[in-house]
From TrEMBL, chains A, B:
It holds the Pfam family ThiS. Transmembrane segments: none annotated. Keywords: Nucleotide-binding. InterPro entries: Beta-grasp_dom_sf (IPR012675), MOCS2A (IPR044672), Mopterin_synth/thiamin_S_b (IPR016155), ThiS/MoaD-like (IPR003749). The keyword Nucleotide-binding applies. One of its GO terms (cellular component) is molybdopterin adenylyltransferase complex. GO terms for molecular function: nucleotide binding. Belongs to the MoaD family. This is Molybdopterin synthase sulfur carrier subunit. CDD domains: Ubl_MoaD (cd00754). NCBIfam families: moaD (TIGR01682). One of its GO terms (biological process) is Mo-molybdopterin cofactor biosynthetic process.
Amino acid sequence: MALSIKYFARVRDALGTSGETLAWNATWQTVDDLRQALCARGGAWAETLSREEIHCARNQQIAAWNDPIADGDEIAFFPPVTGG
Amino acid sequence: MALSIKYFARVRDALGTSGETLAWNATWQTVDDLRQALCARGGAWAETLSREEIHCARNQQIAAWNDPIADGDEIAFFPPVTGG
Amino acid sequence: MAKDAVTIRVQSEDFDPGVETQRLHEADPTVGAVATFLGLVRAHPQEDGAVTTMTLEHYPGMTEKALAAIVDEARRRWPLTAVTVIHRVGPLAVGDRIVFVGCASSHRAAAFAACEFLMDYLKTRAPFWKKETTASGETRWVKARASDEERALRW
Amino acid sequence: MAKDAVTIRVQSEDFDPGVETQRLHEADPTVGAVATFLGLVRAHPQEDGAVTTMTLEHYPGMTEKALAAIVDEARRRWPLTAVTVIHRVGPLAVGDRIVFVGCASSHRAAAFAACEFLMDYLKTRAPFWKKETTASGETRWVKARASDEERALRW
């Protein structure tokens, strides 16, 4: 299986991609573990995926950083919402 | 001169008239003096014009019972409003 | 706010909430928020004696002044670009529109607050009276509600 | 409230506030109050770089779920007979409609409160993002406002 990762709005623009499929890594326990793995790519990834500036959704529901993650999840990273 | 008196809604129905012209009486100083003079007619007048159950407007503005009254005024008595 | 951005009407004819909503913002590109309230004659399914018609009486002359004073107070309290208040009078049936209040502003907090304030003040300070007619033909004056007075005192 | 009395739409097409307001009450004679909110793309006359267009991005799939959860919460808190939430996505110009929220109830307090609650929650919990384009062609993502978060925390 794998994770489906999505990026929106300013996060997508900064990373230059709207999403990717990532092989599952059994050491990831929380969505923050995934975030840190992405930050470890350095450059725009480290700059953009600071947990102070973005939100995360797990399977299309807002997630807290210490929420569990599981193989097959759809995980999204995005800036604070500005609709309405 | 004279006073123009108007009655609305339940007050009008109870008194059987929508209004009247009343000769000015120089002893009236407040709208409550006028109300008491009308109550002195007895019957439906005394029953209907109790100051606990009605409101008063002087020259088309909500009035307090001790507001002054003057010759030529338009005075209205009506129940609490129920529009909207 | 230009004087012509205030609309106050007391009328027996029906009105169109869509047209009124559009009028509240179409002339001013700085409007970001329009809050509206529409009041209707409603059926009271739980109460004794179903209401079939409602008659709205008012105090011509004073009504317009009272509504203008209420709108002035709202404009004093909040930055509004346009305000509309329409109140019908005469006989109405269940489902008919009674009242429309709409407030336009740059921001939603002002639009919402002013719209609710206007309804609370209109309910307790504008000289309108409702008389209900039940299915059996009986008529009764609607009683004022203490809860309306309490709501108006919040502001 | 019947399930079909809830309308949630995310669409690029415009909508008609008059039609939506009518739909909120026409099927139910117990509705006495309809509160609505209309949000528009507004010009910012004081700010540097006049906005000419706005692009609304969203998270397809999650958006609908988030709006449904917000509406469910409103229905849990207030007695509502009908609720409508419409939010546009894609490119919009100054003056264009962005969002419509309407709540119908027997009484106005519930309709007003639910409508304002829905807007506050939508503004802070539904995955929409605005990008502005200025007259010079520059684009910028709109920043979230702390005041919106504070308003949502009132409820």
